[in-house]
Amino acid sequence: MQYIVVSYSHKNTDIAVREKLAFSNDEQKKKSLEKVLNVKSINEAILLSTCNRVEFIISTSNPSEALHAVFGTLHLHSGLSIEELEGRADVYEDEGAVHHVFAVASSLDSLVVGETQIAGQLKDAFRFAYENGFCSQKLSRLIHFAFKCAAEVRNCTSISKSPVSVASAAVSQAKEVMGGNLGGYTGLVVGAGEMSEIVAKHLVASGCNVIIFNRSMERAKNIAKSIGERIDVEPFHSLPEYINRYRLLFSATGAPHPIITDEMVDESQFERYWFDLAVPRDIEIVKDKSINIYAVDDLQEIVNTNLSMRREQARKAYEIVGRYTMDFFKWLQTLMIDPLIKDIRERAKESAMKEVERAIKKGFIPPETRKNVEKLVHNAFNNFLHTPTKQLREVAEQPRADTVIEAMKYVFNIDTEVKMMDKYKCEFIMKDDVR
């Protein structure tokens, strides 16, 4: 069984392509995961879809079949040709796939390196797949280790200190175009998801007043309550009135189509700055030249500045990711070694007890000596198996481990897969503090 990742991100696709690839609701994700898992060689899959990336994380016995299934599924979902999907995709296999997932979880592959939002998004993607039966043993182990790796990167580097996310990059750009100070201005925030909440927090911290618009007033009010000062909530239907009154707007909904259209715009005598942080885009192209629209990809300059400042920390972080990648495969080999050793010892004990029982029935051994004989045989087998057991544990950390393990399984006719089913535990499944 191998791990593969098919990745589309800000690194290999522009926003127009990512809009077509994006999954705007759980039903779309579920249908695509079900289609991928219809392929017999694919036994587990996770779909990660954010404004900056769409990735399939898969456990498969046939990578070629798995890739064919993923490209076919994305073709039906997005309308993009198979040829374009294959040409744009970054494909990672086995160690490369594990390294990539660890780097993503550690926010090293993000548009803004060090932003912590991706950890929550990966956790949500894993939880969705896990709760719907799309992943279990193999990918749970992978995600478990990914979050351990991300935690060490966070604790051992300063890459996430004073983090700059896409949301805060947008606020930073707004501050620059408004003369370096947002104090006294009002920013309109459309949507009440995580991105919108981050924007609202950064705006308030910059001295800006905030008005939130969302179809669910309750969700918007909860955000306003959690932030506290300088923040109000207005009904979503009143948005057209407000966008023509204020200069700053930030939109980050999960709508499948634009929610701010050209026909909603009135001419004004002042410059307006709108930040569209959604994929697909929330804001339609407008004719009014006084409106400056920034999409996710337009924040690249701020992102690049951030990257240069964090280059040294990123190097240290990648060293941690590399170490965790090696440790992960060693851990997997250990998981295979332990049940193998246990099975060999159980078979030895079972064989010895059968022979003791047969010897007593034949009259070769007096019944009253059974306990002493069993103890003798048990000690003999323990001594005999001591060196092989020690050697097996040592080989778990060597490149030839897989070959040795498979040879032992063949010689003793052992299948450890069933015995390993409960040999993992991802304590991060239900935690809310990994964001």
TrEMBL record:
Residue numbers binding substrate: 50-53, 110, 115-117, 121
Broad enzyme group: oxidoreductase
Residues annotated as catalytic: 51 (nucleophile)
UniProt site positions, description: Important for activity: 100
The reaction(s) this protein catalyses: (S)-4-amino-5-oxopentanoate + tRNA(Glu) + NADP(+) = L-glutamyl-tRNA(Glu) + NADPH + H(+)
Tetrapyrrole biosynthesis glutamyl-tRNA reductase dimerisation domain boundaries: 316-414
Function: Catalyzes the NADPH-dependent reduction of glutamyl-tRNA(Glu) to glutamate 1-semialdehyde (GSA).
Protein name, UniProt field: Glutamyl-tRNA reductase
Gene Ontology MF annotations: glutamyl-tRNA reductase activity; NADP binding
Further remarks about this protein from its record: During catalysis, the active site Cys acts as a nucleophile attacking the alpha-carbonyl group of tRNA-bound glutamate with the formation of a thioester intermediate between enzyme and glutamate, and the concomitant release of tRNA(Glu). The thioester intermediate is finally reduced by direct hydride transfer from NADPH, to form the product GSA.
Enzyme Commission number(s) of this protein: 1.2.1.70
The protein's assembly and partners: Homodimer.
The UniProt record lists the keyword Methyltransferase: no
Binding-site residues for NADP(+), renumbered to this chain: 191-196
Residue intervals of the Glutamyl-tRNA reductase N-terminal domain: 6-157
Keywords: NADP, Oxidoreductase, Porphyrin biosynthesis
Segments forming domain Quinate/shikimate 5-dehydrogenase/glutamyl-tRNA reductase: 174-302
GO annotation (BP), single: protoporphyrinogen IX biosynthetic process from glutamate
Family: Belongs to the glutamyl-tRNA reductase family.
Pathway it works in: Porphyrin-containing compound metabolism; protoporphyrin-IX biosynthesis; 5-aminolevulinate from L-glutamyl-tRNA(Glu): step 1/2
Free-text note regarding domains: Possesses an unusual extended V-shaped dimeric structure with each monomer consisting of three distinct domains arranged along a curved 'spinal' alpha-helix. The N-terminal catalytic domain specifically recognizes the glutamate moiety of the substrate. The second domain is the NADPH-binding domain, and the third C-terminal domain is responsible for dimerization.
Listed transmembrane segments: none
Record CDD domains: NAD_bind_Glutamyl_tRNA_reduct
Domain of life: Bacteria
Gene from which the chain derives: hemA
Pfam short name (any one): Shikimate_DH
